[in-house]
């Protein structure tokens, strides 16, 4: 880790990989790299679009991110 504050960035990535490992990879024994890539891609789509997150007041990451964009706010006004 180089740079001041870089550990904070790593916390979010570590948390994401922990979720991927415990909710997807450890539950399924993949037969191939292709199957693993497909499964992880499907999980990430679920994680971002459907899975509610406590940190976002039960919103999905997509809902939290796109609601904060200025363009999205102009559309609703």
Mean pLDDT: 81
Number of domains: 1
Strand content: under 5%
Q: How would a crystallographer describe the biggest sheet? A: none
Quantity of strands, as a count: 0
The number of helical segments is: 4
Spell the H/E element sequence. HHHH
Distance between the termini: 42 Å
Oligomer: single chain
Q: What share of residues is helical?
A: 55-70%
Q: Please tell me what the overall shape is.
A: globular
Explained architecture:
The chain is built from four helices and no strands. The chain is globular, with a radius of gyration of 16 Å. 0% of the residues are buried. The chain has one domain (6-76). It is mostly helical. The mean pLDDT is 81.
Summarize the structure.
With 77 residues, the protein is mainly α. The chain contains 4 helices and no strands.
Notable traits:
77 residues; mainly alpha; 4 helices; 0% strand; globular
Secondary structure layout plus pairing:
Layout: H1 6-25, H2 33-49, H3 61-68, H4 70-76
